[in-house]
Amino acid sequence: MTVDITMNARGLPEGRSGVPRDGLSIEGPFRGHYRETYVFALPRDSMRCKVREPRSELFLFDHRCFLSEDRLLRDLRGRVSRIPEIVELDEHLLLQGFIEGRTLALRPAGALSARHAAQLGHLFGELVVLGARSITARRSCDGAYHPADGGSAAFLGGLIDFTEEQVYRRHIDRFGSLFRDLGVRDGAMGGIRRQAQMLTDRPFTLLHGDLHRLNLIVDHADDLWAIDWELAMIGDPLYDLATHLHLMRYSSLEADRIARLWAAAVQRVRPECATGWREDLRTLLAYKRAQSVHTDVIRGAIGLEQLGSGPAQAWIPVTAHRIREVLSRAREPLGLDSLPSLREVMRAYARWLGRFTASAS
User: Are the beta carbons of 27 and 18 closer than 8 angstroms?
Assistant: First the structure.
């Protein structure tokens, strides 16, 4: 598709947010963890597209694999159902189609509908068919994060390395005192690293990497679409299930149903990708819970910092409640001696905020 449209130096359509220019109305920015999103309708076309720009103040908490999400989606066209369409303005500029609908909601009992569960299972089945050699989109990550195909232990070991080095130790000068006050010590993921060595090898496949409800859109026909593929990677297919279960916070009954749905979908199309899944899922979930502590503790601190010292005081209890819940879920994986009380978590953030305010003045 060729469209006559003017883009500015940031790769965005000319014009301010929400202000028409030459018939173009831009909506946004809509802020996510990593990017700001702008939505607009193409001239002389009913299709709405989106462009996304990285937020400059970001900490990168997740391993990135592909150079371009848009080019990956173009590569997946016709092979993965219900993903954003790619509009090619020219050989260098691609736009993503905007999926009209609402984010996935669970039924009152906390369960997926039969329709959406079946479509999620179909997506899992489509992904495990796609191995590294079937993906032509360029990978940008360090070669150290490309373990040999099937090396599930090395794959999880690489993710642990990333969390320890790029999330925890990289920012230890700034957030180390906060982690210590919360009882999280250097090397806390050692137990999970030992468990990782016991993983069963499974063929590597394409992973979405971030399948939570905000990245699952239900359209007006009640069909489920998967968006936001920026954390996609090649690796152990069971990791996608672990990530989904961790982020969705299902009840134990529903989590078991979705896990069995994943296994059935994978076994139908590529059974070797489900080898040892029941035993290994526990280890991958342990990693996801420990990873959340490392990322959410920092995100909580950054959020308070951005509010400023006065307003931040009022939000400390909200942050502390969320972080204590995350710590509770990860107590066993991280080998925490004890779980800090809500008041202790509040004091830890208050102390950190006081140190930050003092050093900034």
Answer: yes
**Euclidean distance between CA atoms 203 and 188, whole angstroms:** 29
For residue 318, the tally of other CB atoms under 10 A from its CB is 13
b/e map 294-308, b = 16+ CB within 10 Å: bbbbbbbbeebbebe
pLDDT band at 186 (very low <50, low <70, confident <90, very high): very high
322 CB burial (10 A radius; 0-12, 13-18, 19+): middle
Q: H-helix or E-strand containing 122?
A: helix 114-128
The DSSP annotation for 39-91 comes to EEEPTT-S-EEEEEEE-TT----S---BS-HHHHHHHHTTTSSS---EEESSS
Question: Does residue 241 surpass a pLDDT of 80?
Answer: yes
Distance between CA 89 and CA 59 in Å, rounded? 31
Q: What is the pLDDT of residue 335?
A: 95
Residue among 224, 265, 188 nearest 101 (CA): 224
For residues 309 and 88, give the distance between their C-alpha atoms in angstroms, rounded to a whole number. 46
Confidence of residue 40 (pLDDT cuts 50, 70, 90): low
Q: Which residue would you say has higher pLDDT here, 205 or 21? A: 205
Which band of pLDDT confidence, cut at 50, 70 and 90, is reported for residue 8? very low
Residue recorded with tokens 């230890």: 172
* Run of H or E residues at 253: helix 252-269
In terms of C-beta distances under 8 Å and separation of at least 24 residues, what long-range contacts does 69-73 make, across chains too? 69/96, 69/228, 69/229, 69/230, 69/232, 70/94, 70/95, 70/96, 71/137, 71/138, 72/135, 72/137, 72/229, 72/232, 73/229
